[in-house]
Fold this sequence. Notes:
alpha+beta; Glutaredoxin; two-stranded antiparallel ribbon; disordered N terminus; cytochrome c-type biogenesis; redox-active center; Thioredoxin-like_sf; TlpA disulfide reductase family protein
Amino acid sequence: xxxxxxxxxxxxxxxxxxxxxxxxxxxxxxxxxxxxxxxxxxxxxxxxxxxxxxxxxxxxxxxxxxxxxxxxxxxxxxxxxxxxxxxxxxxxxxxxxxxxxxxxxxxxxxxxxxxxxxxxxxxxxxxxxxxxxxxxxxxxxxxxxxxxxxxxxxxxxxxxxxxxxxxxxxxxxxxxxxxxxxxxxxxxxxxxxxxxxxxxxxxxxxxxxxxxxxxxxxxxxxxxxxxxxxxxxxxxxxxxxxxxxxxxxxxxxxxxxxxxxxxxxxxxxxxxxxxxxxxxxxxxxxxxxxxxxxxxxxxxxxxxxxxxxxxxxxxxxxxxxxxxxxxxxxxxxxxxxxxxxxxxxxxxxxxxxxxxxxxxxxxxxxxxxxxxxxxxxxxxxxxxxxxxxxxxxxxxx
Length: 397
């Protein structure tokens, strides 16, 4: 059935569903569905190409060019998101919502798409839930926890509930790390640029002790309630335990585990050889763009604290030590590194539960972990503070 409609003095013949509350002619739902399908398909191809190019990048310049290929937020997503909301039973709509959440950062469209998913699609599971969750947990806002709790409490799919429980624990852990960086002015500027001032206000109100307790409790729940659930060939118990270890054993004011492995030249040495010095542990690799971007500052920091009881020690994650040794020469890296794969029982990064590169630990002269993931000026200030503790201790003796 066709209707005669007058808009701005123009006669239009329209079919039902063609005119919406916004007061102008829209595409038919069938056209929007096809556009949504094409967006989903194109973004999947573009993201695969981006990841492929990034993995093949060997230099910082190549990585910069690769990052230029990262898919931008879905343009004009609002009408497609609205179409998906009107058609909750259409699988293309679900695909579209996941794509918008995964590739639109913290935009209004992404937030709306996430809200629709947690309201109308609690049966989301597998790769779709993973892709959406991986982006949502990067939002330093209360909406992220609300989204994950909706799936943990209400999803009919046990695997989804298990993944939501694990991701919520990791979100709490991530917030704990971010709260430590709250004093970093540069980091605050970047955070407010991406997420608005509300994000930093939210971080300032967080209770670090409570975050840690909540994260550990959620990880305990993963093991107790969902331990037998599998994801990507691994049991939830095995996925949760390393994070539990890190929070309980590698936490601030815990003794740093020993590292005993070979350096890049095959010469063995131990972390405890540096007892009495303030130590910065830097997990780095040539394939890690942010790692290599930190090298100039790290090089300057080593020179600045020369002659003081300080050491910067690296753990290199390259697949072969020759690649790392070449980087040491080319980038004038002036500190010693263990080769990650040379440890006797398991890679050093596994013992230290490192999942993201770079990872930084600051250890005091007594071998106690004092800070995690500090960078730039804040890292230097932390080292200076710990060096003052060394000097104060020497005066008291």
